[in-house]
What does this fold into?
Amino acid sequence: MVNQIVDDILSPDVTFTGAVFKLLLSLVLGAAVGFERHRKGQIAGLRTFALICMGATLAMLISIFIPQEYLGVKNGDPGRIAAQVVSGVGFLGAGAIIQMKGSVRGLTTAAGIWMTACIGLAVGAGMYAIATVATFLIIFILLYIERYEKWCGLQWESKIVRIKVHGIVTDTAPLRAVFKRYGVHTSDEFFKFDYDSGITVINYLIRVRDAADFISLFNDIHECYDTASITLGNEVSM
It folds into this structure.
């Protein structure tokens, strides 16, 4: 009995026992990746990644089953459905990318979705060891490469600094000097001059290390002008 179950699991043919094992394994592997994303507070979490991996596995099983079952009757291609998964899952990954004015978030999650779908295809094809190794490598990248980036100071974030100043600002050199002193890279600046109220609103698109001292930065910006408010966000606001 046990030998028969093992044979069904290792068989390249689609059997009920083998299919159930593959779906369960893809659930576990997909959930392992999704758990890490859920821990980071990403919208696509444990359930999403588990379903993606299982769906890709099921697509591969169907792709293998059709020519296996109808060989000689229909000209089936085992890779046809699987190929559509690789390209089609890109639309799902695109939904995980949040594009705001000045920043893009979710690229790592989108890449994880695509890779998890490939893991599901590998499980469906019976490549258990490779699928498991790929899962551990993904988790290693998401956990330990991130720590290495933080340790080396390689992590940068895109932010919007909104500065509201009393008066019409004609010279932004003092602001640029403050940003340079704190190692903040400015890529774009947007102005709004309200001549009736005598207010200037400046939005800076900046790239900054995740460990930046924004409190000290804002205090020094405040010293440059008669500043009414300074806001840190992800979208340009005028």
